[in-house]
Amino acid sequence: MSQEQGITPRAKDFSAWYNDAVMRAELADYSPVRGCMVIRPNGYAIWELIQQALDRMFKDTGHRNAYFPLLIPQSFLAKEAEHVEGFAPEVAVVTRAGGKELDEPLVIRPTSETIIYDSFAKWIHSYRDLPLLINQWANIVRWEMRTRLFLRTTEFLWQEGHTAHVDEADAEREARQMLAVYRRFAEEWMAMPVLTGVKTDSEKFAGALRTYAVEALMQDNKSIQAGTTHHLGQNFAKAFGVQFQTAAGGLDYVWNTSWGLSTRLIGGLVMTHGDDVGIVCPPRLAPVQVVVVPIYRSDAERTAVSEVADRAAKSLRDGGFRVELDAREGMKPGAKYYEWEGQGVPLRLEVGPKDVAKEQVFAARRTGGKAPIPLAGLVDGVRAALEEIQSGLYQAARERREANTRRGVSRDELVALMAGPGGFAFGGFCGRLECELAIKEATKATVRVLPDEEFRSPTPPATCAWCGSPSVVEAVWAKAY
RNA sequence: CGGGGCGUAGCGCAGUCCGGUUAGCGCGCCUGGUUCGGGACCAGGAGGUCGGAGGUUCAAAUCCUCUCGCCCCGACCA
Questions:
Q1: List of A residues 80-119 with CB within 7 A of strand B
Q2: Is the Cα dihedral A474, A264, A324, A322 positive or negative?
Q3: pLDDT tens digit string along A222-251?
Q4: Which residues pair with residue A374 across a beta bridge?
């Protein structure tokens, strides 16, 4: 009866719960360097699954992977005025190497627009070279003041797509397409409902014409930006001289996009589906989808049970599932249950003497509920259970989001909402920076997105939630990660 | 950088106010045995520069000074 690794309940302290859940699942550990983190095998396995799913989606939309250097000449960053200003405070700079001061300091990439567009300038000559569709998987460094495991660390892993196009419309199409990819990934793989939309000028990427994002509401009613795409216009093309000959024989600058999604998503996964026991992995991103636990007393029982458990595990592996058979001796089944639950394994199959006699396994879902599955239909039964868990997680998250969304908020409601429970607040917006800043000052909430049409309210708000003047666009406010 | 908390065994902590001899407890770990359908039990065992430096003292985990680091909350950000 020894409860050793109880974690802080969400209701008591959400931040503490998050740390406990991440540590209990052994996703990550603190590093000797302030602000950095070690991604442990359990966490990295989730990242690998995210990479596999996204990489396929990127390739299917015509992108190719490449790799650009970690170190960037400092002067590159300075070529785009808004960009350098946006990143200056958080850039780490190498000034000394090889035992001497460098002639020109090298920055450790906070993002790779500059060094990539320097290459693009060499590679692109003709409209026939366009579109150029590149992605890279990389680590980047941004010197953050305050860090949290996965959610904000000094170094993190991400992918960054960089593309060049003949005209504005094609670049816009690309930025929109990749936003749709992120949305689909979030919904279908992460089981995480998202809002899509455009960022306000004050929230957009430094150097971009427009920034789009997918935003998801976490269980503490704060929003996380789960993926972001930028239409960069010709800003970087002009700064780096990325020109091409048009079909008509003229000379023009390319139109660029960039888009990224990071290991932060793992934090989003934890905060979307986790409960007071620990993390819950949606089956499609679960490093272990099914754990098989044999149960027995005597040696004779062990023999019979093990035989069935082995066979079950093997047939599931052959069926394409990620399966762990937990045959550890000297550990009671209950102890194993708690361990795997803490790692978020969506489905546990118990195999005991009674099950062997009935030619079944007993399936316990991480999301609740137990039911037998006949051995004869094991693969199909497990597939159905995992699909139900996947869609159930999405539905639950979606219902939670809807329950924590308010529409047509007034100034008083916005203030009260953000001072209290939080959540998504839809309301009218006059579009003025002045109001945006006043709201942020008063409520700590920011405009997460100006939502795309499908997410907007049936009747557009008439007046700005803050100043009461006519609304020009609907906005979604929330506190954010 | 401001406010709050904390550094004692792998993890979680007690001991610190009021200095005193071999620094303790739970979990975990190792060995053997009995167990095993929701966190097992018994017996034996390993494991410590008390974050670091300096000082006070016959004597410091404990008192003083400095310092390093971590977590949480706030100002910046994916």
A1: 86, 89-90
A2: positive
A3: 999 999 999 999 999 999 999 999 999 999
A4: A360
Report domain A283-388's class.
alpha beta
Please tell me if the domain spanning A14-273 has the same topology as the one spanning A283-388: no
Give dist(CA A142, CA A259) in Å, integer. Answer: 17
Fold of A405-478: Translation Initiation Factor IF3 (3.30.110)
pLDDT digits (tens, 9 = 90+) for A441-477: 889 899 999 999 999 999 999 999 999 999 999 999 9
Query: Distance (Å, rounded) from C-alpha A105 to C-alpha A206?
Result: 22
Task: Output DSSP code: residue A32.
Answer: S
- How does DSSP assign A213-275, residue by residue? EEEEE-TTS-EEEEEEEEEEETHHHHHHT-EEE-TTS-EEE-EEEEEEEETHHHHHHHHHH-B
Output the 3-class SS for A341-407.
HHCCCCEEEEECHHHHHHCEEEEEECCCCEEEEEHHHHHHHHHHHHHHHHHHHHHHHHHHHHHCEEC
* Residues of chain A (237-296) having a beta carbon less than 7 angstroms from strand B: 260, 262-264, 295-296
Euclidean distance between CA atoms A476 and A188, whole angstroms? 23
| CB of A34 within 7 Å of some strand B atom | yes
Find which nucleotide's C1' atom is closest to A362's CA. B37
CA A391-A397-A400 angle, 5° bins: 140
| Tokens 């430094």, residue located | A206
- Matching residue, tokens 């095998």: A41
Cβ-contact A264, A270 below 8 angstroms: no
Fold for domain A14-273? BirA Bifunctional Protein; domain 2 (3.30.930)
The model's pLDDT over A247-266, given as tens digits with 9 standing for 90+, comes to 999 999 999 999 999 999 99
Q: Please, are residues A254 and A234 in contact by the beta-carbon 8 Å criterion? A: yes
Q: What are phi and psi of A197, to 5 degrees?
A: 170, -170
Closest to A113 measured CA to CA, from A251, A177, A209: A209
- From CA A377, how far away is CA A316, in angstroms rounded? 11
Domain positions in chain A are 14-273, 283-388, 405-478
Longest distance between any two alpha carbons in chain A, whole Å: 84
Q: At what angle do helices A41-60 and A168-188 cross, to 10 degrees?
A: 140
Q: Which residues contact A95 (CB under 8 A, 6 or more apart)?
A: A101, A102, A105
